[in-house]
C-alpha cells in the first residue's frame, strides 16, 4: 500500500469499489524505483457487463435532472478535488512517475477546472427556436447515452476528467477504462464524484488493456467512444465504433512543429522549446518535437538551451525540488532509447543527453539533437519521450512547408516578434491546437484536438458539448395539414 487513501480495489462500478480476482493481474510499477506498488485485475466480462448495466440505468435518471442540478454535482466534485489536491497529486506521481512539482499544479487542478467549467455550462445547454413564417421549429440538445472513455498513461487524472466532465454535463453516463500502465487515478475521480452526489453508476472505472477496451466499444449499449491514445490504437477503436455508427472523439499522437524565427525573444523561445519537449519527461501528445530554428540564430539558440538544461533536477519525484522525472515504464524508456540510437545512426548531432541516469527507475536525460533533417526517423515519428530534434531553416515559406510535411496535425507553435508573421504562419500551419510565443498551454476554455492523423473531434471548451450531445429537430405546424389526397 502506498498510503491509506489509495484506491481499495481494481474497479469502481455502480457507486462502489469492486474486485474480481478472476481478471488478469496487472502490476502497478512506480517508475521512479521500478518497484511494484499495487496490483489491479483486468475487468472480466462480468465486470464490464455490470459497469455498462449500471451506467445505462444511471443515465436515464441523470438525463432527467435539470442541467443546473447536474452542474452542481460537477462543481462540488471540483471543490473536493481542489481540497485534496496534494493527495491526488501524490497518487498521480505514483501512477506516472511525474514529479510532484508538476502534478501539484497540472493534474488534479486541470481536472477540477474541467469539472467546474462544464458544471457551469450544464445549465445553459439549450436548443434554438427557428421561426418559419407561421410555423416554427425548435431544436433540443439531448445526451448521447452511455459513453466510453479510454485513456493514455501520461495524464491519468486529467484525461479521465476531460472526458467525464463534458459527458456528464450533457446528461450522459460514462464507463472509463484507464491505461493499464496507470490504473489508479481515475478510481479516485470516481470516488470523488460519488462523494459529490453523482448517482451510483454514473461514472464507472474498469481496468484492462486493449481487450477490455474492445469489449466496451463493441457493446451495443454504448453510444460514444472517446479515446486518448496512439494513432494505431485510434485506427482500431474508430473501426470498431464505426460498425455500430457510434460517435467518436479521437485524441491521438503528434509530431508537432515549433518554428523559431530570428526576431524572436530568444529567452522565451528557449523556454517555449523546453516546455514543448521536456515537461512530463516529454510524454505529452502535443509536444513541439520538431523545433525549426532560423539558421541565423541556431548557434545562439543551442548555446542558451544547453545552458538552461543545466537547471534540470532529476531525482525523487516526491521531492518538490525535482523538476524532471522518469519515463512512465521500462518499455517506454526502451522505445525512446531506440529512437536516440536511430538519431545517432542516421547522422543527427547529439548536443546533450542521450543516456539513462545512473539510478533506479526509468530515468532518461533530456536529449537534444541538432542538424536534424526532415527524412530522419527522429523527425518523422512520434517518440513520446524527452528528445528534441532541432532543424534549421532559411525562410518562412520553407519552414511552413516543411512543418506541414507530416501526417500528424495535433499542435504547432511559432516564436516571433512580428505580429503579422505570427498570424500568417499559424494560419498556414496544419494543426488543431496552436500557440504564439508560448507552448502547451491547455486551459479548459480553449478547444483542444488535432487534424489529420492526430484525431477527430475536440476536447474542452464549448466545442466539447457538440461531441457529447446530439440535436433533435422538431417542426411545429400551426395551421392545417395540406395533403394532396
Ligand atoms: P495506446 O494507444 O497504447 O493506449 C491508449 C489506450 O487505448 C490504453 O488505455 C489502451 O489500453 C487502450 N487500447 C489499446 N489497444 C486498444 C484496442 N485495440 N481497443 C481499445 N482500446 C485499446 O497509447 P499510450 O501508449 O497509452 O499513450 C501514448 C499515446 O497517446 C501517444 O501516441 C500520445 O501522443 C497519445 N496521447 C494523445 C493525447 C491527445 O490528447 N491527443 C494525449 C495523451 C496521449
UniProtKB/TrEMBL annotation:
Protein EC: 1.2.1.8
Domain Aldehyde dehydrogenase: 20-474
Enzyme class: oxidoreductase
Superkingdom of origin organism: Bacteria
Active site: 251
GO function term, MF aspect, one: betaine-aldehyde dehydrogenase (NAD+) activity
Keywords on record: Metal-binding, NAD, Oxidation, Oxidoreductase, Potassium
Protein family (similarity comment): Belongs to the aldehyde dehydrogenase family.
Record-given protein name: Betaine-aldehyde dehydrogenase
Originating species: Rhodovulum visakhapatnamense
Gene: betB
Amino acid at each position: 500500500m502506498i498510503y491509506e487513501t489509495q484506491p481499495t480495489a481494481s474497479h469502481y462500478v455502480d457507486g462502489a469499489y469492486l474486485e474480481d480476482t478472476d481478471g488478469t493481474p496487472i502490476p502497478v510499477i512506480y517508475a521512479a524505483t521500478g518497484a511494484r506498488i499495487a496490483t489491479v485485475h483486468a475487468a472480466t466480462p462480468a465486470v464490464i457487463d455490470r459497469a455498462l448495466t449500471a451506467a445505462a440505468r444511471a443515465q436515464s435518471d441523470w438525463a432527467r435532472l435539470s442541467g443546473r442540478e447536474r452542474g452542481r454535482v460537477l462543481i462540488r466534485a471540483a471543490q473536493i478535488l481542489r481540497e485534496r489536491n496534494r493527495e491526488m497529486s501524490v497518487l498521480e506521481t505514483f501512477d506516472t512517475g511525474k514529479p510532484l512539482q508538476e502534478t501539484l499544479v497540472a493534474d488534479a487542478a486541470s481536472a477540477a477546472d474541467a469539472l467546474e467549467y462544464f458544471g457551469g455550462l450544464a445549465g445553459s445547454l439549450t436548443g434554438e427556436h427557428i421561426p418559419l413564417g407561421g410555423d416554427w421549429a425548435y431544436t433540443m440538445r439531448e445526451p448521447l447515452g452511455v459513453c466510453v472513455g479510454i485513456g493514455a498513461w501520461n495524464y491519468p487524472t486529467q484525461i479521465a476528467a476531460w472526458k467525464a466532465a463534458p459527458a456528464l454535463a450533457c446528461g450522459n453516463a460514462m464507463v472509463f477504462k484507464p491505461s493499464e500502465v496507470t490504473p489508479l487515478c481515475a478510481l479516485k475521480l470516481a470516488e470523488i464524484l460519488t462523494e459529490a452526489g453523482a448517482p451510483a453508476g454514473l461514472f464507472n472505472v474498469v481496468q484492462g488493456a486493449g481487450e477490455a477496451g474492445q469489449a466496451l466499444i463493441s457493446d451495443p449499449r454504448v453510444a460514444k467512444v472517446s479515446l486518448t491514445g496512439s494513432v494505431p490504437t485510434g485506427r482500431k477503436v474508430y473501426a470498431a465504433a464505426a460498425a455500430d455508427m457510434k460517435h467518436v472523439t479521437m485524441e491521438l499522437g503528434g509530431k508537432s512543429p515549433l518554428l523559431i524565427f530570428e526576431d524572436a525573444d530568444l529567452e522565451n523561445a528557449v523556454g517555449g522549446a523546453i516546455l514543448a519537449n521536456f515537461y512530463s519527461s516529454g510524454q505529452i501528445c502535443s509536444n513541439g518535437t520538431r523545433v525549426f530554428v532560423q539558421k541565423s540564430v541556431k548557434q545562439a539558440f543551442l548555446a542558451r538551451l544547453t545552458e538552461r538544461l543545466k537547471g534540470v533536477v532529476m531525482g525523487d519525484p516526491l521531492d518538490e525540488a525535482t523538476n524532471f522525472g522518469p519515463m512512465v515504464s521500462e518499455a517506454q524508456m526502451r522505445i525512446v532509447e531506440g529512437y536516440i540510437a536511430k538519431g545517432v545512426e542516421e547522422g543527427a548531432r547529439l548536443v546533450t543527453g542521450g543516456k539513462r541516469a545512473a539510478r533506479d527507475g526509468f530515468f532518461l536525460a533530456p536529449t537534444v539533437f541538432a542538424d536534424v533533417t526532415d527524412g530522419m526517423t527522429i523527425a518523422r515519428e512520434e517518440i513520446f519521450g524527452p528528445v528534441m530534434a532541432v532543424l534549421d531553416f532559411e525562410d518562412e515559406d520553407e519552414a511552413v512547408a516543411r512543418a506541414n510535411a507530416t501526417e500528424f496535425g495535433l499542435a504547432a507553435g511559432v516564436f516571433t516578434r512580428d505580429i503579422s508573421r505570427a498570424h500568417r504562419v499559424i494560419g498556414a500551419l496544419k494543426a488543431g491546437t496552436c500557440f504564439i510565443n508560448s507552448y502547451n498551454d491547455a486551459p479548459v476554455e480553449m478547444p483542444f484536438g488535432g487534424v489529420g492523423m492526430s484525431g477527430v473531434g475536440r476536447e474542452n471548451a464549448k466545442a466539447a458539448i457538440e461531441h457529447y450531445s446530439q440535436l433533435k429537430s422538431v417542426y411545429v405546424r400551426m395551421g392545417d395539414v395540406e395533403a394532396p389526397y
